[in-house]
Each structure stands twice: as C-alpha cells, then as structure tokens.
Write a structure and sequence with these properties.
The chain is an alpha/beta fold. The protein has a single domain, classed as Nucleoside phosphorylase domain (Rossmann fold), CATH 3.40.50.1580. Helices cover about 40% and strands about 25% of the residues. A hairpin with a 3-residue loop joins strand 4 and strand 5. The protein is globular, with a radius of gyration of 16 Å.
Length: about 220
C-alpha cells in the first residue's frame, strides 16, 4: 500500500499539468511567478508525500532531441542538491529510454544557444524554470523530490522573445503579452511558429511518457 498523502507535481503551465489528469497527482503550475509558486508549495508541501518537477525542459546536452525524456539525478543553479534515488530508479524502469542527469534551474528561460552551451559545460543536460523552487520546498519539508522533464527545445535552438512572456501567473497563456511582443518585434514570427510546432511535438511525447510513468508518477514504486 502506497503513501496516501498527495504527490505534488510542479509544472510551468496548466497545459503541462493537464497531461497528468487521472494519474493521482496534485498539480501546481508556476506560471513563471517564482514567489507565488514558492508560497503555494510552502503551504502544501508539509502534507505531501513527495514533489516532482514535471513538464517541458530545454536541452543543454546537444544529443537530446524534441520529445526525449530526462530523469533528474541532481540539481544545480539557484538550489543545489540530489534527487531521490529510489524515485528516479522507479521512473527509469518505466521510461527506459530516458536520459538521467543533472538539471539546471535559476528561474529564467534559457533561450540563447550560446548560454545553453555554457551551462552544459557545468554538467547539466537540461534547464527548466521550476525545479529549483520545487527542490527547495521538498528539502524544507523533508520529503522526496524528483525531476521528470520532456525536451521541448534543443540545445542549438534559439527561443523567440514571445516565448519568454507567454506564461501568466498561475500557468495560463498570456495572449496579450505574446501579441505585444510580436508587434514590437515582428521578425520573430518564423521562429515563434517553429517553436510552437516543437512544443506540440513535446506535448504529444509528454502525454505518452506520463501514461508510461503511471499512477502517482511511479512514486509508490520507489
């Protein structure tokens, strides 16, 4: 019998969280607002069984492709520490093609290929915007922490400015901010279209991977 307390899944957007419907986890979408996310996690973490950072990630490792999965072994950046070993092992058993490694997080969207290459030299293979907040909350609550992320942009891909303003606090889509960014810099439209297509591919891969990971994202098998 597994732990009956909830497993918290931290995502960037509500759309990422929707992938987890029916899998027995409680989703908290950060929406790019680290202060709000930290506060929400502080309220919920002490009653939780564990916290997993889930959703999209940018590749720092040039061998990772759109739709590939990454399972975290540790985290560097604004917060540094190890992921829960048994949980990572359980996830790997369900997603044998996933690459295990280090995640980088400091709350920023890493959009520039040159910065991705530089961060990759520190040993990290992916970067995301929420894992450092989730890891700190888990450490403060004394509960297991895991990272399960799907590649949405490759190491050599530049992200257009509109992607950086696309999230509303709470994880919704900031359409007004996106339109304003496009009007300010119309030349980004081709890159934005390309990024959107890659994101759609990543969402399809996320759905399949979440299903493969199973109920509570393999927490009860750790």
């Amino acid at each position: 019998m597994g732990d009956v307390r909830p497993v918290l899944a931290v995502t960037g957007t509500r759309r990422e969280g929707a992938v987890l419907a029916g899998l027995g986890v409680t989703v908290i979408a950060g929406g790019g607002d680290t202060e709000r996310l930290a506060g929400e996690l502080a309220r919920q973490a002490r009653g939780a069984a564990g916290i997993i950072s889930f959703g999209m990630a940018g590749a720092l490792d040039p061998t990772l492709r759109i739709g590939d999965w990454m399972i975290g072994t540790s985290l560097i950046g604004s917060w540094e520490g190890d992921c829960d070993g048994p949980w990572a092992k359980a996830l790997a058993a369900h997603l044998p093609a996933a690459k295990s490694g280090i995640c980088y997080g400091d709350g920023r969207l890493i959009a520039d290929p040159a910065e991705k290459r530089a961060l990759g030299k520190n040993g990290a293979i992916v970067a995301d915007m929420e894992s450092h907040i989730a890891a700190e909350a888990a450490a403060m609550a004394g509960i297991p922490f895991a990272i399960l992320r799907c590649i949405s942009d490759e190491a050599d891909a530049a992200l257009p400015p509109a992607i950086g303003v696309a999230m509303r606090p709470g994880g919704g889509l900031a359409l007004v901010a996106i339109i304003a960014s496009i009007l300010k810099n119309p030349s980004q439209v081709p890159e934005l279209i390309g990024s959107s297509a890659r994101f759609r591919s990543a969402y399809a891969a996320m759905q399949a991977g979440a299903t493969a990971a199973g109920q509570r994202l393999a927490f009860d098998l750790r």
